[in-house]
Amino acid sequence: MFTTSLFQGVVFLLVGVLIGSSLSVFWPGLTAQNSKTDSLVKSESSKLSSVPRRGGGMKFGPQIKKIHINVGPNVSPITPPDGDDTAVVAVEANLAIANHLREKFQKTLFPHRFFVVSCAVAGPPLSHLFQPFRFYNGNRGDSSSLAEALSKEKWATEMNVTSAFGPGPAGFDFVPVIPLQDLLDSIPTDLEIEFLKTDTQGFDLSVLKSASREAIRRVTRIQSETYSAGNQRYAAQNNRLVEDWIPFMAEMGYELTNPVKDGKVGVLEYDAMWKRVD
Predict the structure, then answer these.
(1) Residue 54 · residue 191 · CB < 8 Å
(2) Quick check: 145 and 203 in contact, CB under 8 A?
(3) 126 to each of 22, 57, 185, 196, 203, how far by Cα in Å?
(4) How far apart (Å, rounded) are the C-alpha atoms in residues 75 and 62?
(5) Alpha-carbon span 196 to 194, nearest angstrom
(6) How much of the chain is in helix, strand and coil states, percent to nearest 5?
């Protein structure tokens, strides 16, 4: 039986050689094309490997020196300031709105200076998984969140069926979730991350906590949506300014530049401004 198997193997090998020779004789262009393709692939690979890396996976034009990040922009993102040296990275989990941002801002208004990332940002146990992103507050989903809304008001109880920017399933979409650490690590290390804004409907502190202190301190200024004490709008989230944010940001080495009077927040939501203490 071993002799028979060996004989069959030799026969198959000879047949393969004969077929290969026939192809090169009758279709010389085929083998030439394959050789050309292999050479092209090797050439392109050498070009990529020869490009000097600045760290991170995102690539920006050589004129870009500063990055602004907007996590949760909805339809009103921050935009690049005057000049050509600053780019905006807008991270939007609502897929219909992300497409709107891509068409309006990335392709039309600020090409090469505005970039859309379609995902949500949060820490464990949600990160590195697909999670339900819940639509709240009208067709645009202005109050949409990874968390369930605690309110019984209309904005929280009537989930949208279609988006103003295209049809979508009622209730939620499954979206990828990454930690802030991954986002910051993707930005080249020789670029200044000048500004980070978060507006994630209860997940703002979770966003910051999903990165290391070293990574967070790459950011010069931070704007975060915070809540007043007793204003827990979403389930299982600690996002209070005085009780949660101020102690954490002090530990990270940031100071509040727009402190509230008497340490109290007089409104339901408060956009806190933080500056890195160098």
Answers:
(1) yes
(2) yes
(3) 58, 22, 19, 21, 11
(4) 28
(5) 7
(6) 35, 25, 40
- Tokens coding 64: 């870009």
The pLDDT tens digits for 64-74 are 999 999 999 99
In angstroms, the CA 33 to CA 22 distance is 16
Q: Render pLDDT for 131-159 as a digit per residue (tens, 0 to 9).
A: 988 887 766 666 788 877 777 666 666 65
Distances from the Cα of 234 to the Cαs of 87, 141, 223, in angstroms?
Answer: 32, 15, 20
Please, what is the angle between helix 2-26 and helix 28-50, to 10°?
Answer: 90
Cβ partners under 8 Å of residue 266, min gap 6: 228, 260
Within the chain, strands assigned E span: 66-71, 86-91, 114-117, 120-121, 129-134, 162-163, 166-167, 172-178, 192-198, 219-227, 254-256, 269-276
Tokens of 71: 């996590």
